[in-house]
Write a structure and sequence with these properties.
The complex is a heterodimer of chains A (about 120) and B (about 110).
Chain A: E1 4-5, E2 10-14, E3 19-21, E4 24-25, E5 32-39, E6 46-52, E7 60-61, E8 64-69, E9 74-79, E10 88-96, E11 108-109, E12 113-118
Parallel strand pairs in A: 2-12
Antiparallel strand pairs in A: 1-4, 3-9, 5-6, 5-10, 7-8, 8-9, 10-11, 10-12
Chain B: E1 3-7, E2 10-13, E3 19-26, E4 32-38, E5 44-52, E6 55-58, E7 64-70, E8 73-78, E9 87-94, E10 104-105, E11 109-113
Parallel strand pairs in B: 2-11
Antiparallel strand pairs in B: 1-3, 3-8, 4-5, 4-9, 5-6, 7-8, 9-10, 9-11
C-alpha cells in the first residue's frame, strides 16, 4: 500500500491567489514527521516545511503552511499569495521515527503535484 | 553553513560502461547520507543510505553500489550500466540525530544511458 498519496498530478492557480496541495499518508508508527519539498525545473529538491506528529500547532514558514489533520492522516500544503516562481513540482514525504525498518527513518516520497502559476 | 555538492551535473554513458557519481557535504560532521533516484515524472526512490564511514545500507537490489570513503563523501557506482539506470540522481544529507529532521538535497546528476 502507498504510504504517501498525492492525488493531484497537476494544479493551476492564478498569481496572488492561495492554493492547497493535498497529501495523505499511511503509517502505524505513532511517531513520524511530514515534509514538503519543492522541485523546480532545475531539479534541486528544496525543503519547505516540516510537521511532527506530536506537534500541537500547524507548521508555518512564510507563505507556506501545513494543514495537519492527524485523525484524517492528512498533511496538505497551503501556499498563500502564489507567485510565478512557485511553479514547480511539489512532493510530500514522511519519515517514520520508530519503525525504521532498517532505513534510519528515510523519507518516503509521494509522486508529486505539478503546480503551475498563471500570470 | 552547510552545503552539498554533486558532480557531474549531467552525464551520458553507453550501456555497459562504468559509473561514478560523487557527493560531498561541507559544514557539518558525521552526517547521514543518502542516494535517491528519480525516474522521469516520478517521485524519489531511496537507493542507499549511510550513517558513517564504510557503513552502507541498500534499499533496493540493483546493479549499483555505494561507498563512503570519508565522513562527508558519498559515491555511487556501477560496473556496467543498464538502460534502466537512466534517471536523476540526488544525494542528500541529514544531521546525525534522532527525530524527524529534514534532509537537504544536492543539485542532482542527470544520467542518460544510451
Amino acid at each position: 500500500a502507498q504510504k504517501i498519496t498525492q492525488t493531484q498530478p497537476g494544479m493551476f492557480v492564478q498569481e496572488k491567489e492561495a492554493v492547497t496541495l493535498d497529501c495523505t499518508y499511511d503509517t502505524s508508527d505513532p511517531s513520524y514527521g511530514l515534509f514538503w519539498y519543492k522541485q523546480p525545473s532545475s531539479g534541486e529538491m528544496i525543503f519547505l516545511i516540516y510537521q511532527g506528529s506530536y506537534d500541537q500547532q500547524n507548521a508555518t514558514e512564510g507563505r507556506y503552511s501545513l494543514n495537519f489533520q492527524k485523525a484524517r492522516k492528512s498533511a496538505n500544503l497551503v501556499i498563500s499569495a502564489s507567485q510565478l516562481g512557485d511553479s514547480a513540482m511539489y512532493f510530500c514525504a514522511m519519515r517514520e521515527l520508530q519503525n525504521y525498518g532498517g532505513s534510519q527513518g528515510n523519507l518516503i516520497f509521494g509522486k508529486g503535484t505539478k503546480l503551475s502559476v498563471k500570470p | 553553513s552547510q552545503t552539498i555538492h554533486q558532480w557531474p551535473a549531467t552525464l551520458v554513458q553507453p550501456v555497459g560502461s562504468p559509473l561514478s557519481l560523487e557527493c560531498t557535504v561541507e559544514g557539518t560532521s558525521n552526517p547521514n547520507l543518502y542516494w535517491y533516484r528519480q525516474a522521469a515524472g516520478r517521485g524519489l526512490q531511496l537507493l542507499f543510505y549511510s550513517v558513517g564511514i564504510g557503513q552502507i545500507s541498500s534499499e533496493v537490489p540493483q546493479n549499483l553500489s555505494a561507498s563512503r570513503p570519508q565522513d562527508r563523501q558519498f559515491i555511487l557506482s556501477s560496473k556496467k550500466l543498464l538502460l534502466s539506470d537512466s534517471g536523476f540522481y540526488l544525494c542528500a544529507w541529514s544531521p546525525f540525530r534522532s527525530g524527524g529532521y529534514e534532509q537537504y538535497f544536492g543539485p542532482g546528476t542527470r544520467l542518460t544511458v544510451t
